[in-house]
Amino acid sequence: MNDSLRKSALVTGSTSGIGLGIARALARSGVNVMLHGLGDPAVNEELRRSLEAETGVTVRLHDADVARSDEVARLVADTEAAFGAIDILVNNAGIQYVAAVEAFPPERWDAIQDIVLNASFHAIRAALPGMKRRRAGRIINLASAHGLVGSPFKSAYVAAKHGVLGLTKSVALEVATLNITCNAVCPGYVRTPLVEGQIAAQAEAHGLPPERVLREVMLVAQPTQRLIEVEEVAALVVYLCGDAARSITGAAIPIDGGWTAR
What we know:
Blueprint: E1 8-11, H1 17-28, E2 32-36, H2 41-55, E3 59-62, H3 69-83, E4 88-91, H4 106-134, E5 137-142, H5 155-174, E6 180-187, H6 193-206, H7 210-218, H8 230-240, E7 252-255
Parallel strand pairs: 1-2, 1-4, 2-3, 4-5, 5-6, 6-7
């Protein structure tokens, strides 16, 4: 396919974990992709090169610091310059910190708001003018089951993810007549390197084997009692980007093994 006829996507936080799974699924469906992430530039470049070779689409790489609004604007502008348009925006970048409210470092609170909530706003704000001109676009915000329910010791993350859901609804209503949709995906515990590391740390802390940590600590709230696979989340995002999902907008869609059904 002529590259100018392909759809193009920006996926923030996409050099590992859920974001990488989404970027890979979009690329495999024929969408040009802007990978984004910090970390070792050589490792990320090899990831970009291998994904481009595997899928035959154009894959670019960006290292913007999405905690800064000017960097988010640059990321969007550079993606539009690279591909001519952003047809799909996936706001996935995020960080986590766990502490009681009275012990929560204010700088950690600010960082989580900046990377999870504020970056999503700034990216949408920058990408929407182009989508409005073309009267087409898909915006997917990676929220969390923690956008639907609370958990102790995660005040900043829970607050930010609840904010993402409010942002999603407002944007969806503003652009509902323009063939632009805005939805939030709310995963529970997903099998990622980060979660695998948490399992190992919890196993050591509690003196339990990993399978008991999963069953008795991490997945107590997830009725299916299994980790969600990255590919499941990615497939949902790909569906929401297609024509069959054009009437789904303003939704917060759980993919959480029944966590929020209670």
